[in-house]
Amino acid sequence: MRIRRIRYSLLAIPLILVASLLLSYQQQGQAADTVFAECPAMIQTVFAEIDRNCSSLERNSACYGFQQVQAAFNEEMPDDYFTHPADLAPLSMIDTIQTLPLDPVTSNWGVALMKAQANLPDTVPGQSVVFVLMGDVEVENRVAPENLWRPTNPVSMTALANANVRSGPGTTWNVIGGLDAGTELEADATSPNGSWLRITYENQAAWVSRDLFDVDGTASDLPVADESTRTPMQMFYFRTGFGELACSGAPNQLIVQGPEHVTINLTVNGAEMSIGSTISFRQIDADTVQLSVIEGAAYLNSGRDRVVVPAGFTVIAPLDPADNTIVGAWTEFRALTPDELTAMLPVETLPRTLLNYPIVVPTQDDIQAALNTLPSRGGSNTVWVVDDNGNIVSVGGSSNSGGGSNSGDDDDDNDDDDDSSSGNGGGNGNSGNGGGNGGDDDDESSGSGSGSH
Prior knowledge:
By secondary structure, the chain is α+β, with helices and mostly antiparallel strands.
C-alpha cells in the first residue's frame, strides 16, 4: 500500500503543477485585461499632465510632455538638461528627440510636443506647426546649419503705388492678390537679388517688388530667403515602432498639425510634401511608412504621380530600412478602416491649448461624403463606396483597391493649383520660392487695383 500511495503522490505532482500554471496564466490574463481596460483612463491622465507641463510652449521650441523623453543636442548641455516633464528646449539646438512606448504596468508613455515655424512668415508670430510625438517615436532634425533660417525683426513699409502680390520673388510667379497704394505692412525677408520682399498676405508668405514700397529702415538688413532656407524641423526624418501594441488606443505615431486654413511645406524622410491640416505619420513595418489625413488634406508626389489625400484617407510609401529614406511614390490610396478610425479617437482629447484647433477624427459618413467629391473614376453614373477594409469599390462596378498612384487627384498635370502652394508657388523651403528665377521683368505698373509688379 505504501508503494501505491507514493505512486498516487507522484501522479498528483504534475497535476498540481499544471493547475498552478493554468491559474497563473489566468491571473496574468486577468491582469492584462485590467491593464488594457485602464489604458483610456491613463491616456486622459497623461493628456492632462502635458496640458500643465507644456502650456508655455512657444514657436521653435520643444516640450518634455510625459515620461519618458530623450533628446540629443548639437552642443554640449548639462546632464540634467531636458530630462524632466515640463522642460523646454529650442528646436535649433535639437538633433534628435525620442519618446518611449507606452508601458501600462509602470504608467509611462513618452509624449513630447514641438512647435515649429516651417514656412510660416515671421510677421505672423502666433502661428506654428504643432508636432506631437506619442509612444515609440524618434524625430531627427535634418536642416543643415548653413540653411537654417535666422529671423530678425521685420521692417515696416508703405506701398507707393498699387502693387501685385505674387507667390514667389519674381514676375514669373502667379499673382495671388493686390495691394492699394498707401497700404502699410511689414516685410521679414528679401530675395537673393534684393529686388523682392517677403510679406504676409492672407496668413501666407507672399512677395512684392521692392521698387514699389517706401521701406522704413534698410531692407538689406533683412535675412535672405531662398529655396534652400529652412526653419528648424522643417526638414526631418522620423521613425516609429511597429508591431503589437500594449494599448490599441495609444499607437506609436507622429501627429503634425498646421495652422487652420494654411498649407505648409515639409520635407519628411527625404520626400517633399505640403499639408493643409492634421496628419498622422507612422511606420507599418521597417520598409513602409503610412500617412493618414485626420483633417484637411495632404499634397504628395508630383506630375502624374501627384496625390491629393483628403481627410479620412491614407497612403503608404516604401522606405529604405538602412536610413528610413522614402524611396518611392505614395500609393495604395484608400479610406481609413473603422479600426484605424477608432484607434485615432484618443487624439481628439489632446488639450486644445496645445493645438492650433481641436482635432476631430472623421466618421465613416464623413469619408463617404468626401469620396463623393473626388474626381469620377468610372463615369458620371458610377457610385463609389468604402468597404470594411478601406478599399474604394463601385456599386455594381469594378473595384479600386487603392493601387492607383494619383487616386485623390484628377489627370490634370498642372501643378499650379493654389491649394498646395502656401503662398509660395508650390515651392519648398522657408522662402516661398521653389522655382522661378527671382528676377524682375519690364514695368508691371498699372493704375488698376491689380497693381504693379
